[in-house]
Every structure is written in structure tokens, then in C-alpha cells.
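Sequence and fold:
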Amino acid sequence: MKTFYHLLANTTIAGVINFTVWFAITFFIYLQTHSVFATGIISGIYLILVAVTGIWFGSIVDNHKKKTVMLVSSFVSLILYAICLSIYIGAPDNTFATISSPILWIFVVLLLIGIVTGNIRNIALPTTVTFLVPEKTRDKANGLVGTAFGISFLITSVISGYLVGRSGMFHVLLLAVFATILVMIHLSFVSVNEKKLEHHKNALKKIDLKGTIKIILSIRGLTALIIFNIINNLLGGVFMALMDAYGLSLVSVEMWGMLWGILSTAFIIGGLVIAKVGLGKNPMRTLFIANIIVWTVSIFFTIIPSIFILALGMFIYLVTMPFIEASEQTVIQKVVPAERQGRVFGFAESVEQMASPLTAFLIGPITQIVFIPFMTTGKGADTIGRWFGTGPDRGIALVFIITGCIGLTCTILAMRSKYYHQLSATYLKS
């Protein structure tokens, strides 16, 4: 467990670095361009990178030592952050003020690759739980992972909002470079006792997509769970693309970053509750109840243009998210053979994220072209504007409400399906 705590702490710091850069680039580009379209494109690029790398990252985790994978991940991120710092320092004035600037998008893509490279840790860490933590306490260990995720948000949103407000991306990238170096130094001194891994001569066999799919299909209900999460991420792409634009329409960037810092304590609270009491006898049931709560909240937290109601809704939303993540991880850790878990986690991450880029790419332009005019000068403003409000922020709010209604309906239907009961039975019998 001591080794797990070291890996957890190290991954938390690495997450702080990556989340800081992620928040910062989103804040920075929106404030420079004032374009919802731009933030949607950024989210879409990020999610595409996550989708196309997940399966590959999973195979890397299964076929290499976890510590080595984490070190290489940090090294690649370090190089890319250093390159982006050089680009930012050398860029002419107003380079980042227009979305037609090629340098802006080169800068964004390189940063996003650096951030996504850190995602390999999110695949590697759950696999270390399997061989470092006793089975009876894995759900609680997964809860600590959720707590670490919350701590990352708690620190990064405050740092990002403050640094972007003060100096754009300069100090963000400077911090990323030096903090990544410290993470690598710490990890190099952590001793991880792993079983000897079998290495294949043919690199393509390491990925073994066909074998991974065969394993998933052989476990009753697991395919349905992944499909359900695809739908959830399809809808979740809406919030990823539009939430910052909505929040920044209500408060300043410094206040928005500070608010995220306060709200991120919800992740910590949710994770600590799981670490204390676990997920119950059937994590599948916990997963679906948590989804019902999340989508119900999503219907109401933008019902009026109030930062206080938004904050309350987001707090409930965020305190529930660790239960969803920990439940899925706990189920996979028990029903999937240990030597395949990296590839299954990676495959699930890839296919679950494939729907999100479509949403993120489409929802920005759709919101800008359809919903914002609809609630500013269109029929929406005439029919419901008196009580709902009018303007660009109310157009975004309407998108959130519609998304919440769809998500709640899908969750209830999925929980009533036979596949839910099949995977629940498989977990309980394993």
C-alpha cells in the first residue's frame, strides 16, 4: 500500500500539471478570441486525441513496467511543454487573438498532445491497484483515486485562473516545465515490485485489439456498459465544450478559476466517502444511481442565470462523479484478467471518448448559430424569455437542459435493461 500511495501522490501532481495547462489554454483562448466555436474545437481536438490513443496506451501499459510508462509519459509532456513555452515567448503580438492564426493552432495542438500523453497514467494507475491492493479494499483505493482527481481540480483551477489573468500562458508553461521535472525525480526513487512481463517480438501483437474485443464480448454485460458510457460521453461533450464559456459569461476568469477550486472539494469529498464506506455490494447499481443524480442536476443547474445555483448544481454533480469512475474501475478490475486490464481500460477509454469529439465539434457551432440567436432575438426569447431569460448565456443554458433530459432518459432505460442485470450477476459471482 505504501508503494500505491507514492504512485497515487506522484500521479496527482502530474494531474495537477496537466489540468493546469488544460484549464489555462481553454481560458486563454476564449479570453483572447471570445469564440465559443474555438473552445468547442479545442475540446474536440482533445477528445479525438484521447480516443485514438487509448487502445495504444492500454497495450503499452500491459506490455511494459508501470513505473517506466509513467516516467516516459512525463518526459514526453515535458518536451512538448518546453517547446510551447518557446513558441509563446517568440510569438508576435496578437498571434492568439484570432482563430485563423496557424501559430495559435500549432500551439494548441502541441499542448493538447502533452496533456493527453499524461493520460497514460490514468490507465496505468488502476492496473497497479490490482497487484498492489487487496481485492476487498480495491473499491476504497479507487475512491482515493477519485480524491486525487479532485485535489488536482482544486489546485489547478485556482492556479489556472490566477496565472492566465495575470500573465496569459507564460507562467502556466513555466510552472508546467519545472513541476514535471520534479515529478520525474520523485518517481525515479519509487520502487515498484512488478511481475516479470512477457514481451512479444511482434509489436502489433502487443496491441492485440482482436483479443481485447474477444475478452470484452465474453463477459456478459460489459459491452453494454461500454456502450452506455459512450452515450454518456457523447452528452458529456456538451458540457466540456460549453461550460467555460457559460461560466465566464457570469463571472471573471479569476472568479471562475477560484470557483472551480472551491467546487473541486466535491471530488475530494466523494472520493473520501468511497474510501471510507466503499461502493456497496453491487458497484453497478451505484454507478447507475450516480448517473441518475448527475443528469437530474444537469437539467436544473442552469435553469436561471445565477452563479450560486450553477455552483450548487456543479457541486452535487462533481461529488457524484467519483462514484461513477470508481464503480467502473472496480467492476473491470474484478471481471477482467489482470494481464488484459490495461488494454481493456485503454479500449474502454478510446471507444467511450469517440463520441465526444463529434459533440464537441458540433455543439459549439450549433450553439453559436442556432441556440444563441434563438434565445437572443429569436422565437425562444419571445416564448420563454420572460421567465428563462434572454441572451447568449441563456442559449447555452438551454443546451444544457436538453442534454440533461436526454441523459436521464438514457440512464433509466439502461438500468431497466437485461444487460445491467447480466453484468451485475457476473460481478457478484466473480
